[in-house]
Amino acid sequence: MTASAQLGSRPGTAGFAPAAAGSGDNGQMDSAPASPRQIVLLGSTGSIGTQAADIVRRNPGRFRLAGLAAGGGDPGLLAAQALEFGVEVVAVANDGAVGAVRDALRAQAPAGGSGAARPLPKVLAGSTAVAEVAAWPCDVVLNGVTGAVGLAATLAALDAGRPLALANKESLIIGGPLVTGRAAPGQIIPVDSEHSAIAQCLRGGSAEEVAKLVLTASGGPFLGRSRAELADVTPEQALAHPNWNMGPVVTINSATLVNKGLELIEAHLLFGIGFDRIEVVVHPQSVIHSMVEFTDGSTIAQASPPDMRIPIALALGWPDRVAGAAPAIDWTTAHTWSFQPLDEEAFPAVRLAREAGTAGGTAPAVYNAANEVCVEAFRTGRIAFPGIVDTVAQVVSESESHTRGTVVLEDVLAADRWARIRALELTGAESRSAAGAVSVTRGMGE
Please, what are the domains in the chain? Predict the structure, then answer.
């Protein structure tokens, strides 16, 4: 393993080990496999999942889907995916949706012809089904679930020794040392465009040569607005991201910059770099996805159009690239790329995340859980847009007793539930019983 591959394999990090392309020294995954890599895709009907399916569809010689998991909100699409790719197993997180998924499988299955009909996949249902599929025999698990509900699947994949292409940043952030302590060097491969960019840039130098990481943020749909001007924005406006096509929760997180706060903590955990050496800069064009500054004054940046199929494909094929994953930058036309400091008065989410990450313990779990509740409150009209981060800040400030000492899984789950209940109280929810529903029903590729 080269010196550059050591960054992130030190204690307390996620064990990410950037490997040189084609080197074969990638910790877990064989470079240029002789047969297609078997992929388990979690959150298959969501934004990440459908784009990953597109990569697999266009590269049948490199990838094959072995299993799928989703919440069950779109049974027709889940059944269509299962039949198209001939998967062995399908997990449905929502017990109430499993009947509709089975009906859709039977309805869409091709009628028997001259050849033997392909058997329908095994269908698993319930709260543990997704984690069971995450440990299914395969070459790569892609966790594209949204929210804290993805933690169990992340832990199951790691414990089973599966290479984990991680788009579910929340599970790493709330789990912290619980996740990093279970990950072998090279076992976690980042899917977020920013962390994929950093992983690629780190190939350009050794760990000792890294001065800082620079995460880029588009600024979202409200870039340039003051805090006062954000008071009356609507969910529809917050969902209109200027560059990216993402799921609703991630899109609103991008508008508040909570997503960038989560990515700040994620970068710290993945690459073992202190928070004082991770910066966030606004880059409205979303072409430079992140940068690494080295000790000699050089900065290496990764650039590509804002298309998640590029980092998804790289994670599935790591350490090798997948040709034609998405269109490249058109160099025959003029481009202007700009950078500006983050306005932390209007958008305090990154500063709050830095404080939560520095505090450690279960503070990041509280930050994430409160935000998930507040996003739903904003979407349903219970709070105004600035109230999302304001409420998260209040919940985090009240959680000091939850942030100290060695953290075990029970601590994380307790802090997560407490934060949801407290956020529900602050946002005017009618019943505390809704706390569990927020965690369970959002995420699995709605």
Answer: 3-192 (3.40.50.720), 197-441 (no CATH)
